[in-house]
Amino acid sequence: MLHAGPPRCLSHQAAAQVMLSSAARAASLRRICSAASLRVPSLAACGSVSPPHIPMWGNAISSEEEELLVREAERALRQRRYEPGHFDGVIKQYREVQRPLGRFSEEARAVLNRVMKMAFPAGISTLPVHILDLLPEGVIGSHVDSKDYSGSYVVGLSLLSHSVMTLKHQELSDAQCQLFLPRCSLYVLHGAARYEWAHAITQTDQFCGQTIPHKGRRISFLFRDRHPTELSRMAPQS
Fold first, then answer.
1. Using an 8 Å Cβ cutoff, are 168 and 142 in contact?
2. What is the Cα–Cα distance from 173 to 169, expressed in whole angstroms?
């Protein structure tokens, strides 16, 4: 039987350290970000169900590269206003844009290409970069990315703020886990993590039983591969 109760934690042991004051908590989170450079975090069991395999890099980019990408995001989003809610009700207090890789600066493209090489198999065809700007009070409800729009990879790069991702199994309602996403981290949802577990970014000040600072404004760069149907349409006709 599966456990009911609070989500189990998926992260490095560093995430469980005691954080005593606001300043100490902020410093601790930065240490987590710098310490979380392992490709695959330690995953805790979700009841009797094995947690999904989620490759993750805690320090995927430097602070200077983060500043560069934030400037690029601001430029891409400058004519977009924050929306109270998405048409499907999943995202609240956000703005977003899709931007082809070729429209980024040369410096930003170099960073993004490096990040994508870390996350994707060689030779994979990707969609335009999805930039999502979430206000401090913004949330992303539990969902599985559309299976008809993109392929088998959903890759996220987190900027400006840490956050906690909650994962819930689609069929086993009591199976849920948490993943701590440090600022500057990169995660990959593929296979079961992509199709069998819904994911969400919510407002929470708890992770692994520890109190953490609330999420601030968060910009994420999301990368997806193309759906096989689209690839077949793009293939040259003989």
1. yes
2. 6
